[in-house]
Amino acid sequence: MTRGVELVVLDMAGTTVRDDGAVEAAFSAALEAVGVPSDSPEREDVDAYVRDTMGQSKIEVFRALFPAAGVAEKANRVFESTFASQAVEVAAPLPGAEEAIDKLRAQGRRVCLSTGFSARTRDALLRRLGWTELADLVVCPADAGGRGRPFPDMVLTAVLRLGITDVRAVAVAGDTGFDMLTGRRAGASVAAGVLTGAHDEATLRAHGATHVLGSVAELPAVLEG
Fold this sequence. Notes:
Shape: globular
Oligomer: single chain
InterPro entries: HAD-like_hydrolase_sf, HAD-like_sf, HAD_sf, PhnX-like
Pfam families: Hydrolase
Number of strands: 8
Largest sheet: 6 strands, parallel
Protein name: Phosphonatase-like hydrolase
Distance between the termini: 9 Å
C-alpha cells in the first residue's frame, strides 16, 4: 500500500535531525541531578535502560526509573533544559532529510514531524533548524493528551488533525524500536526504520519494521514503489 500513503510521520532526533550527542548529554545531566552520578553502582543499568528505551517519551522513561514522587519530574526538567540549550548550538538536519520532506510533500503526501520532547523544546529545535514551515504538522506528547511513544496517540493525532482517510494510509519512519511499535499500534501500513540513530536493524525489525533504510533520504523512493 506504499503508493496509497497519504501521511508520513517522521521522528526528529536520529531520523531527520542530528543532535551530536545532545540527547545523551541531557540524560547524563538529568541523572546527575537526581543522584545517579556516572560513578554510581547503578549507573550502568540505568544507562542501559535509557539506551533501550530511546524513542520513548522522556517523562515516561524517568517515571519508570524513578517512581518516588517528584523525582521523575525533576529529572525531566533538567533533561529538557539541558537539551534545549545544547540543541540550539549543535542540532542540524541529517543529510537528505529536508530534501526527503520536500519530495514527500511534492508527491502529494502530508508530512508530520513527531518528537518525545516537550512543546517548548520542540519549538526551540524547530527555530534552530529553520523548520517552522517545513512540515504540515509537528506533534509532541502534549499535543496527544500527554502520551508519547510507544503509544499510538501522536500518530493518531496527526491522522485526525490532517483529515487522513484511513490509518492504513500512514507511513511512520524513525530510528528506534519504539517508533516502529508506535506505527504498528496506530495501524500504519509502513513502519520504516532508519539506521542513522539509536537502534540497529535487528532491533528495528523485532519491533515491527516493515522496511529498514540507510536513512530517511531513501523513503520517498520507497513510497513511490
